[in-house]
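Now read this:
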Amino acid sequence: MNKPLIQMIHKKIHLTLLVLLLSLGAVLAQDASEIIRQAEDKLRGSSSFSELKMTVVRPDWSREVSMKSWAVGRDYSLILITGPARDKGVAFLKREREIWNWQPTIDRTIKMPPSMMMQSWMGSDFTNDDLVRESSILRDYEHELVGEEVVDGRNCWKIKLVPKPEAAVVWGEIFMWVDQAEYLQLKTEFYDEDAYLVNTMLGKNIKDMGGKLLPSIMEIIPAEEEGHKTVLEYLTLDFDIDVKDSFFSIQNMKRVR
């Protein structure tokens, strides 16, 4: 076989391998996005209502906050604080990309700017972005399947989320572990723009809630604050409730109970 023919065959082989690798990368990216989508859909449903208890734990004290939450899809949610007495009636509303806060004690409605998304939510280790999800992990991030690991005895996909260049998000990088059998979000690590770990969120106490197997407790632990954590527990959770988009209005945020 002459040399030019051998070189041509080698080039074709290299080109074929390159195409296969690029195709594989595209498939893995698509698979990672689909995994995230299914995990989000399972957690949210088409609509939902829940009652929750949040416990903020510090080295020398703790406090509890009770709340109700309504949601439709990814774009509409309303959270009403029901206790303690000093915070009762405070509400948070999300309508697509807008976030509003109602403070009944001062009779004031505040539109929350993007600069407030990293601030503490109700004095907890959750940020405003964590609770109302101003950013969308489906819309604002690229997804990459980077491995498989075991979390709490469950085989999980490990997925890396990197912000899209145009996305206005608070995190520089996110790693998420999703259960392969039930699409449960069991662990999430949040990193800042300098790739330092800020928070770790854990899904615990898996049980049937609203006809779905889900973690009933979400625990968030700051990376550099020893003895600090916040525990969010679902007391009730119902899916596919009868609630319309019109429910999520500024006027209703003020009067909902």
